[in-house]
Amino acid sequence: MKNIFKTLTKLGVVILAMTMVSCVSELDQEAPNDGNQTSSEEFFKDPTSYKQFLAKLYAGLAVSGQNGPAGSPDISGIDEGESQYIRGLWVMQELTTDEAIIAWNDKTIKNFHNHSWTSQDLFINATFNRLDFQVKLCNEFLRQTDEAKLNSRGVSDALKAEINTFRAEARFLRAMSYWHFLDLFGNVGLVTEDSPSQFFLPQQASKQEIFDFIESDLLASMEDMRVPNPASPDYPRADQAAAWMLLSKLYMNADVYINTNRYTDAMTYIKKVTDESGYSLASNYNELFLADNDRPAVRREVLFAVAFDGLRTKTYGGTTFLTHAPVGGTMVASEFGINGGWGGIRTTSAFVSKFNDAENDTRGQFHTDGQTLEIANVGTFTDGYAIKKFKNVDVNGNQGSDASGDFVDIDFPLFRLADAYLMYAECNLRGGGGDNATALSYVNMLRQRAYGNNSGNVSSINLNFILDERARELHWEGHRRTDLIRFGKFTGGSYIWPWKGNVPNGAPTASFRNVFPIPASALNGNPNLTQNAGY
Amino acid sequence: MKTIYNKLLLLVLLFPLSILAQSTFTGTVLDQVSNQPIPGVNVVVEGTQNGTSTDFDGKFSLNVKKGDNIVFSYIGYKNYTLVYTAQKDIAIRLQEDASQLDEVVVIGYGSVKKKDATGSLTTISTEDFNRGPLVSADQLIQGKVSGLQIINGGGAPGEGAQIRIRSGSSLSAENNPLYVVDGVPLDNGGGGVQGGRNPLSAINQNDIESVTVLKDASATAIYGSRASNGVIIITTKKGKSGDMKVHYNANFSVGQVSDYVEVLNSKQFSDFVMLQGSPAQQALLGTANTDWQKEIYRTALGTDHNVAFSGGVDNINYRASVGYSDLSGILKEDNFQRVTLNTNLLGKFFDNHLKVEFTNKTSSNKNNYSNREAIGAAVSFDPTQNVYDTTYGYDYFQWLDFSDPNVAIPNQEVNASRNPLSLIEQKTNKGTQYRSIGNVQFDYKLHFLPELKAVANFGYDYSSGKGYGSTAANYVVSGQRSSNYNNLEEKKNRVMDLYLNYNKTFDAIKTNLDFTGGYNYQNFNYINSSFVNDVVNNVVIPGNSSNETVNLQSVFARAIFSINDKYLLTGSIRRDGSSRFSEDNRWGNFPSAAIAWKINEESILKDSKIINDLKLRASWGITGQQEIGKRYPTTPLYLNSTETASYQIGYDASGVPVYLQPYRPQPYNLNLKWEETKQLNIGLDFGLFDNRITGTAEVYKKNSNDLIVFTSNPQGVGFSNADFYNIGDMEFKGIELSMDVYPVRTDNVKWRIGGNITFQDSEVTKLNLVQSADSQGLTDVGGISGGTGNYVQNHQVGFAPFSFYVLEQTYDVNGAPVEGVYVDRNQDGQINENDLYRYKKPAADFYYGFNTDFQYKNFDFNMSWRGSYGNYNYNNVYSNFGNVSTSLPGNGNYLNNASTNVLETNFVSPQYASDYYVQDASFLRLDNVTLGYSFPNALGEGKNLRLTGAVQNVFIITDYKGIDPEVSGGIDNNLYPRPRTYTLGLNLNF
User: How high is the mean pLDDT of chain B?
Assistant: First the structure.
């Protein structure tokens, strides 16, 4: 009897102990049990995970979070649409110039045109953080796909080979974001896959160091990218032509970035783009900015695009922003394949005056009905001509895939062959090599396409002409600020346009504004960063 | 049956005594106020063992001699003595004794006599509850407790509230107190899922016996991991032994809008547009005279019924109740329906050694939320337009885009606001919710050691709900036509407490020891899924579903020493583990200690006629917090995207684009650990003049450390631009005073005046990963309406949290603000973000409540006032609608009505950052006035009826310019107006 009691007691103690132990183990919650959130260990067990992760590296350029169009944002502390890569880049590259002006009251957005932004600016902060987000994603991709990790997961050789291409693309995407960093902010922290993966305070790299990193990393990885193919079934993934273009742009602006003339190097890679890539001009300029601009006949000109889709890739940034925001006044929304305009963006008379032949040059697509040429009030949409560049309709005028007319299908061309042609011409004029006849012929190819005949052809070109031609050809594609800086016309008084410096007719601005300030929140987060001069 | 049995027994027992020529004295004992019979009253002949107790009808019968002093005593009542002079069948009315009320208060894992409590806690019970069409515990005690501030979210029925005990303790993590309902700690914020409203409305207010608010660390530390923000313990009513009693409660209420936002009327608006607008805009004007606010609001009716059955049979007491509420909001369509079922069974077995208690609270809600967008739209919609317009088949007048001459039926004007009534009538938002909270508790006093009690408590809280809605097929926004959405949510919360309690008095050392020690387990499971049916595109878009779990486990111990009934010592320690943190940081230790000195027990005061109660208390303790929103903040996770955030990666063999749903690495911080709050509290409880004046004074200081703040990552570090770090410190200080005074307390008249006031101050003392001099603090707080991403608040070291962060407006000679002209505070010659400064804060310097009860015979009258001082609001209605450009927008062909404020400022453009809009929101509100009359024995013996009439939100005194100064968070943006409500109440007991 006593024994039985003892046994029972022991049994009780063991059961209680086991319950307690199993209870305590419940404190180890590995991951949610929903299939949508996976522990990294589980995630990489699936061979398709690498491509799904790579997709995020590209999607980071297109969407603002994991729940398109909004929700589960990548960047916090700002309206999601405003944190989208293309939109952030665009407002900094275009609203600061003669090409665009905006009517809205969103925070400090008018400071861009006024050249009065500060380190507190949330738009600048958002773009800074978006670039940083991309770099961090790419670093993590490279960490998760290094040789040792892949071996430990038993990844097959075939998949390894594919992942090797992915890694080269990740390095290209990272180089592109570092280039944007360099161009917009100058010197920032340089963090790579070899940096600590846990909390640390990165050192600020000099512009030279960032320049060198972009150059060497591109040179080291571009061979592993896919060979250029304008009709590639892998669109919109980047191929070697995109890397060549990026490198050319780096060299092209080397004088601005590191006070060193690298036009000859630029020419080397521009030539690769023009001569070896196989890409060719689309036959119609305006079709480059339509809902179906991913058609082979159009994308054969686009060296690297960010793809959008009205149903599958939804965002309030990107081309949805670029299509809705410039529509207002008497413009007919259905012509743009959307349900209505947001009545924000127009252009200045300085830009309009670049088109002395607007009736014949099909690139000058102004909407003037009900609009005034000059801008009396920045906040009034009808002050200033509107621009009809991005349209969410196909070549036949049919609206894009989203029947509600909210989100658009237009892919955004980051790099186009036309840009390479104009870079060739400029590089040639700046003594980078090549020959003048080719330069002239490239320029005339663009003009011929724009005019539909050779009536707009020119017989000679000079640098000022190239700058204006770049405005005509590439306006609203996110190049203008960089171009104006390269020509010394962004700040200072050598070139003014309406409302530059917050004055109706324009006023000179200080040259320290050639770079943006490091955002205050980044300085707060890392005391190793020092602010750019002047801010 | 039992009564008869008892009576027979009594008769048999008393029979021999009657032979001794004694008389039988009979009568009934009643409550003096309610005239209800009181069962169980001791009736004893003074100085003898001769006594009895009243039965369940309050009746007694006792053999006595003439000249005997007969004493009637009952806990909570004053003793009553009479001399027997052959009275027969008399009614004895006992008077409540305020000094004995609230004898026992619940604390975590046990209870304590109020006079022996060492911590800071306040109990509010049934008779002190607020009255009116209230549906949740927080509404019952609003304004009644010092150190507790409750700001409800607006005037919708069953609306949730911001509830703060001593300002909370965190910056960006949870600031809601922990709720414990009959021993079941609820999920943070009280739980609640899709389809519901105030989570606390799951517990029928009629079933609540008392609400206890635990404030200092000594009182709360026993709840360690979840106690930093204080604890609110809700205890429901239990059955009392005796015949079945039936209580029926009914309320009928009528609510009306008490104030409208001042906007331009039709004529004023026409004049305004004719003066300021372009010809195109002038052409948009209509000729109607529509008051949109009157169109969307209505008189709201409500009714609430509750029937409770309670009693005791043999060794089992029971109480069960059914409640039904149907309350409409003043916003058209807004409706709240609730059915509640509450059961409580208490069984005592083995000679009262084993107590088993079973409780269950089940509720089912049906909500129609109406469409809150209409509130803002009604402010800004053009008053010159008609409500209805059938020309284009939209039924309602809407702003349309006529720019395309080729379309017969024009589309919506995208940037315009929509017809407020169409928002309500063409877009539905509804919800259903089911919730069940229950537990079973075994309480076993060991047979061989009755001082030792073993307690096992198993509880659960299960909720499931659905939020859903749809849009009419002819709604003006083409993309939303016929679309519908569905959000499903489920929460499963399980709790287990196992503890031992040892309570023994050691007479030799005049010490009582009350020791409790045990183990606590809690598991929370959260399941969500949703979809949107986009009918226009014919696609169903599922949201990311989730299924997440948080687990908490703890061991705890507490000892209370009571020495000589003068000195009290309490010490507790709790060790908590949370699944949120990695193994290295998982466990936190949370100790507390308190002492109390009952000065009135000292010999000098023992016989004082003035001071009958005086207790000095001091406590110190540390509590923790792990409730930071994210449930897996230390785990590396990859998150899938929705289908709508896919990205094209190439084409398939047939040329169709291939879209992948990208996975994103999620931010995590391996080093995250507990937030800790140290709290020091000194309190004094006093009772004077036979407790005609009672009160409490408290001083506290809290220091929260390692606060989890969502802050910027260094560039290049982490997976997003910001992440959670334990970097913040805050300091909270306060003084709380509360007092109850009975100027008159006689048999027929009772008058009580009660009041409380709380002075509070909080300051951020550390904020950044790295402290830098030119840091602006955390700026992205206090988002407002107007533009996108405009913020007006800020957290900064040295300032109150959520300080307004604005530009200093300059004014002209007439005192009118000058548009766009601000003080250049940093004197750099330009006005920009660097000139922003911290100006005022939404938190009050002090807040207060006072109330009074007056009873005369069967009449009673009650009034509650509430106020606050030094709190400011940002008037977002003014800043958004008080300028010309918002009313005459340049981005489309439509008009917006303006706040009348535009006539004062004449601002052309919005000046969101101006401190002009930061307005003093101090106020004093007469919350409630109630008049009641009791009809004792109205429907027969022991069947009492009480009628009450109440007015809620009677009036408000304030300088604030918006419709209501009471706005949680300090940003006044289209608050759902709080109605003035008239309630008729009926209360029947039999």
Answer: 89
Q: Return the amino acid letter for A215.
A: E
Q: Cis omega (within 30 of 0) on the bond before A236?
A: yes
The correct answer on CATH 3.30.1050.10 for the domain covering B100-239 is no
Nearest chain A Cα distance for residue B912, angstroms = 9
Mean pLDDT across the stretch B93-114? 72
The stretch A197-203 carries a mean pLDDT of 90
Q: A112 in helix, strand or coil?
A: helix
pLDDT at A5 over 60: no
CB–CB of A27 and B780 under 8 A?
no
- B143-194 tens-digit pLDDT: 899 999 998 888 999 888 899 999 888 888 888 999 999 989 999 888 888 8
Chain B positions touching A82 (Cβ under 8 A) are 788-789
User: Which of the four pLDDT bands, split at 50, 70 and 90, describes residue B112?
Assistant: confident
Alpha-helical (H) ranges within A26-84 are 40-43, 49-59
B660 close contact with A: CB closer than 8 A:
yes
In CATH, what number does B2-96 get?
2.60.40.1120
User: Taking a C-beta distance cutoff of 8 angstroms, is the pair B792, B912 a contact?
Assistant: yes
DSSP code for A275: I
Domains of chain A: 49-525 (1.25.40.390)
In DSSP terms, B526 is beta-bridged to: B491, B548
Per domain, the residue ranges of chain B are: 2-96, 100-239
Please write the tens of the pLDDT for every residue from B475-487: 999 888 999 999 9
- Spell out the residues 6+ positions from residue B9 whose beta carbon is closer than 8 angstroms to its own: none
Contact B309, B207 (CB under 8 A): no
Q: Which residue has the tokens 């705890």?
A: B556
Tokens representing A515 are 């770079």
Q: What is the CA radius of gyration of chain A?
A: 26
- Alpha-carbon separation of residue B818 from B824, B829, B907 (angstroms): 14, 18, 8
CB contact under 8 A, A34 and B718: no
Q: What is the pLDDT of residues A351-403, one digit of tens each?
A: 999 998 878 999 999 999 999 999 999 988 999 999 999 999 999 999 999 99
CA distance B551 to B530: 25
Q: Are B266 and B384 in contact (CB under 8 A)?
A: yes
> For residues B844 and B761, what is the distance between their CA atoms, to the nearest angstrom?
8
Res. B7: pLDDT tops 50: no
Q: Which of the residues B537, B548, B721 would you substitute to probe the A interface, choosing the one with the greatest number of A C-beta atoms within 10 Å? A: B721
The proportion of chain B whose per-residue pLDDT surpasses 70, expressed as a percent, equals 96
With H, G, I as helix, E, B as strand and everything else as coil, classify residue B409.
Answer: coil
Length of chain A: 535
* CB B86 within 8 Å of CB B66: yes
Q: Which of A15, A21, A25, A36 to mutate to test the interface with B (most CBs of B within 10 A)?
A: A36
Q: Do B644 and A314 touch (CB under 8 A)?
A: yes
Predicted complex ipTM: 0.95
The region, left, alpha or beta by phi > 0 then psi within -120 to 50, assigned to residue A431 is: left
**Bridge pairing between strands A37-39 and B637-640:** antiparallel
Residues 226-265 in A contacting B (C-alpha not used; CB under 8 Å): 232-237
Nearest to A74 among B480, B544, B720 (CB): B720
| Burial classification of residue A533, based on how many CB atoms lie within 10 Å of its CB (0-12 exposed, 13-18 middle, 19 or more buried) | exposed
How would you write B766-803 as a 3-class SS string?
Answer: ECCCCCCCCCCCEEEEEECCCCCCCEEEEECCCCCCCE
Question: How distant, in Å, are the alpha carbons of A356, A466, B630 from that of A352?
Answer: 8, 16, 51
Residue whose C-alpha is closest to residue B575's, from B559, B603, B556: B556
